[in-house]
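Thread title: Can someone regenerate the structure for this chain?

I was given the following input by a collaborator and told the matching structure tokens would be attached. They weren't. Posting the sequence so someone can regenerate them.
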Amino acid sequence: MSEDVQDAIALRRAESLTAIVQRELERMIVSGELRAGQRLNELALAQRFGVSRGPVREAMRALEHAQLVSTRINQGFFVREVSEAETSEIYDVRAVVYGFICKRLAEIIEPDEIAVLEDSVERMDAAIKTKDPAEYYRLNLKFHDDSIEFARHGRAQQTYRSLINETHLTRQRSLVTPEHMQESNNEHRALIVAFRARDEAEARRLGEQHALAGRRRWQAVNGEEDMPSER
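Best answer:
Regenerated them for you:
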């Protein structure tokens, strides 16, 4: 085997490992397993994934480009922290983009795709009843991932995923109480009604309201955390 072929195979293997590590790191960040502001230990992560440090470093650089990770001079990579002002702005943009996605869904969604969304809604109701916010959040992510996938609009999908990735931690914290979870899932159910009715204007309105209600839930949680505890 020539050196050129060996080099090509080695490069391909490294690229594949990087992609695998990147997907796993993204999952850990979005799920909240890695917290905002947490330092990413390159060596520890390499040992955990059973790879060399190279793929981990390249994966973190890719996640920095996706705005999930940031670097600090002489300190390394950290899970990105987003300010309150920036988070509020992201919700504004999310409302516009998700409203467009929901309008498009009302136009083109297929019956079997509606069934997938309905299944997630039913399972989220079950998670609320069993008081399992982690499971609710996982299913909530699935509902939104599926909805943007079913919209079949590449640029909107790319933009929306970037926005929700940036606010993963605030979203998770705002969907912990049964009241917030139920409110959120009622909004999901109303969206499905609009999709079934092919009501594009209503779907867009509800999509925008759903994103803005997410900001209100986040602000409510922030307000509770900022209040001094009683002594």
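The mean pLDDT is 86.
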